[in-house]
Design goal:
single chain; about 350 residues; alpha/beta; Rossmann fold; 2 domains; six-stranded mixed β-sheet; five-stranded antiparallel β-sheet; 9 helices; globular
Length: about 350
């Protein structure tokens, strides 16, 4: 699990430190403040450490292997023209990027640097001692079930405008169903999702996903997009991709969902965190944040959350306010806009009646 992330001169972040919860982490802020960048960087760090090369079988991480892995994943996930494009640029010249990550395991830390002249290389100064056991899961703002058939093969053989997280996600979606000893936990998470979807997710031999109910099955592209997002989570739960000691990073889970489904998403996020999955979300949704707040207040200490507000200062620098309560993360842009719109609406209605 990721405990801390320090960033210096990485994209929009000049000098910030994130202290994460082992359970639930909620990131909010206006567009352009780096919410997705935080999720993707956390994913890169954990995915690289969860996929040792074949030559590393039986041995711990090495400097050469991790330098290559971090550099390759940064380029493939962020899709810059060169690695150095991820460095903060100023009129005074290039900046050196420093990324430092601490993990739950004692002594586990990664520290690497690169600058604007870097093409495909990073300099690793501190090496973790062991590989991570669980693959992280990154969910983009859109669902991936409808693009799944043949996507991995297409990605590996053709230049397409998708980043690496889509390929990794499709591999996890295609994994076999879990038959482990924790089947009861899987069913506990799946049943409310299947109730909302009106059926269960099925992958047939042709490589296509369907929603199956008592009347038959429906092609996934005919299912409402909001339900497809829930179906994606259901599939990952069923395959064991989301289980204890795992990590879920979900970019705008509320996108394309009505409030009723957002409530279900909030319940699933809290349930996953309660079962030992470290959860990160980036959101604009005041409704989702309030729903999570309500659910967390109903818990008995099983789930602790951290809130991160990304705020753009007058100097165009992103400031991070964080804490165990949403009030400690600064103003919520969605709330400010909601209140301002309410004032405009009232003024308009008052003027129309007068």
């Amino acid at each position: 699990m990721l405990k801390q992330l320090k960033l210096a001169n990485f994209t929009v972040f000049h000098d910030v430190t994130f202290q994460f919860s082992e359970k639930l982490n909620i990131i909010h802020g206006i567009n352009g403040t780096g919410k997705t960048h935080v999720l993707k960087l956390a994913y890169v760090l954990q995915h690289a450490l969860a996929n040792p090369p074949l030559t590393a079988a039986g041995i711990g991480p090495t400097k050469v292997a991790l330098q290559r892995a971090f550099a390759e994943e940064l380029v493939e996930v962020f899709r810059p023209e060169a690695l150095g494009r991820l460095a903060t640029r100023t009129p005074k010249g290039r900046k050196t990027v420093e990324v430092s990550a601490r993990f739950k395991q004692s002594g586990q830390r990664a520290l690497f640097t690169f600058h604007t002249a870097s093409k495909t290389e990073v300099k690793l100064d501190r090496i973790p001692t062991i590989w991570l056991r669980k693959q992280p899961v990154f969910l983009p703002t859109r669902e991936a079930l409808t693009i799944y058939p043949g996507f991995v093969s297409l990605f590996d053989t053709t230049a397409i405008e998708f980043d690496r997280t889509w390929r990794d996600l499709c591999l996890l979606l295609g994994a076999p169903l879990s038959r482990g000893v924790k089947a009861a936990n899987v069913r506990q998470l799946l049943e409310p999702l299947e109730e909302v979807m009106g059926g269960r997710i099925e992958l047939d031999t042709s490589g296509k996903f369907y929603l199956k109910d008592d009347r038959g099955r429906i092609e996934m592209h005919l299912v409402a997009e909001g339900l497809r997002k829930l179906a994606m989570v259901a599939r990952l739960i069923a395959t064991g991709g989301l289980e204890e000691k795992g990590c879920l990073l979900w970019d705008e889970p509320d996108a394309n969902l009505n409030p009723r489904l957002v409530k279900k998403v909030a319940t699933v996020l809290v349930s996953l965190a309660k079962q030992g999955v470290q959860v990160f979300i980036a959101t604009h949704s005041l409704f989702l944040m309030r729903e999570l707040h309500i659910l967390l207040r109903q818990q008995t200490g099983d789930v602790n959350a951290r809130y991160f507000g990304l705020h753009l200062t007058e100097e165009d620098v992103v400031e991070v306010l964080q804490g165990d309560d949403i009030g400690e993360s600064g103003d919520v842009a969605a709330l400010d806009e909601d209140l301002e719109q309410s004032d405009r609406y009232i003024d308009q209605e008052t003027g129309a009646r007068s």
